[in-house]
Design brief:
Blueprint lengths: L17 E9 L6 H12 L5 E9 L6 H11 L3 E6 L5 H10 L6 E4 L10 H10 L4 E9 L3 H17 L8 E8 H7 L9 H8 L3 E8 L11 H14 L3 H30 L8 H34 L6 E5 L8
Length: 332
């Protein structure tokens, strides 16, 4: 496999130029990698006042994505490849990349399916230079299916009303973060990770860059419905205790209804005994309804308890199988 990519000069030969790193999670993107890297090089070539590093994190891909990434590393000494020992998930893959960028002046996170245009990162850099600590890309339009747009709208609507902090709508993980923000985010080590919530939680000055999201260049999404639901649950449970409060409120409502129903039954028995009809069917339905509500309550409480259990285990977030830099630096 041969690919031709222009190599940058060594940062040591460029005194005074700061480094901007791109953290690029990859999962089964073999058909996209070469095209994406060319687009990224074309975009960053307009800013020769910075040293750019491209850190690709292979999240246990099942295709030959890793081979394509290692070929990039051989052809371009700005490329670093991290390969996780298995599929840990998009959010953990991004975290692994951030952990390796401690010396960069700023870090740009973006996916490699070309839905996030690399040229937008230059707008982020310009806004960062004006003093903004976090620049997030906010989708002005998106070329997704009607179902994906509807579910995304529902998720952000619900999150906006439940989260204890303000998390911008129509914003993914495509963003630029200043070095001090990256260092703060690195302190958050929860396992059920929701990075856009974590970044919002750390604060600092944050502003948006509007962009039109493109279609996926090739391949299939790494976020099927099952993962989307789990990701949404992590976002809600990680930044809101509202479901627990709802359980208490629902309990009070059901108790109030029960008292009202008891008063009604007693009134009928006392004042209109001839209208009193045995309500076995009603009691049976009521029992099943309350049993279902109780199980739902237990499930919500169990989800929070499960998060506590996972965090108490304190296991490592990820394991690396390969960590390799460009040809001059060698593997490490």
């Amino acid at each position: 496999m041969t690919q031709s990519f222009e190599s940058a000069s060594d940062p040591a030969d460029s005194p005074g130029r700061r480094t901007i790193s791109y953290v690029l999670p990859v999962y089964n993107e073999a058909d996209n990698i070469a095209t994406f890297h060319r687009a990224l090089l074309e975009a960053t070539s307009a800013r020769d006042d910075y040293v750019f590093e491209f850190l690709y994190v292979d999240d246990g891909s099942r295709d030959d994505s890793l081979e394509h990434l290692l070929a990039l590393r051989e052809a371009d000494d700005r490329v670093t490849v991290l390969s996780l020992s298995r599929n840990f998930g998009h959010q953990v893959a991004v975290t692994a990349g951030l952990d390796a960028c401690t010396d960069s002046a700023a870090v740009v996170i973006m996916d490699t399916d070309l839905q996030d245009p690399p040229r937008v990162s230059l707008e982020m850099i310009a806004l960062w230079e004006s003093g903004v600590d976090v620049v997030f890309a906010q989708r002005r339009s998106r070329r997704d299916s009607a179902f994906k747009r509807a579910t995304a709208f529902g998720f952000y609507w619900l999150l906006d009303r439940l989260a204890s902090i303000e998390i911008p709508r129509n914003v993914g993980d495509f963003r630029l973060m200043d070095q001090r923000v990256v260092q703060e985010v690195a302190r958050y080590r929860e396992h059920d990770r929701f990075l856009r919530g974590i970044v919002a939680h750390v604060g600092f000055r944050q502003e948006a860059v509007l962009f039109d999201r493109d279609e996926r260049f090739a391949g299939e999404t790494g976020y099927p419905l099952r993962k989307m639901i789990a990701f949404a649950a992590s976002g809600i449970a990680g930044f809101s205790t509202a479901p627990l409060r709802w359980i208490s409120r629902l309990g009070f409502v059901i108790s109030a209804l029960s008292v009202m129903l008891a008063c009604y039954v007693a009134g009928v028995r006392i004042f209109y005994p001839e209208q009193s009809v045995p309500g076995w069917a009603f009691l049976g339905v009521g029992m099943f309804l309350l049993s279902g509500i109780q199980l739902i309550m237990m499930g919500v409480i169990g989800s929070y308890l499960g998060r506590v259990y996972v965090e108490a285990q304190n296991r490592p977030l990820y394991s690396l199988a390969i960590a390799a830099r460009g040809p001059r630096d060698g593997a490490r």
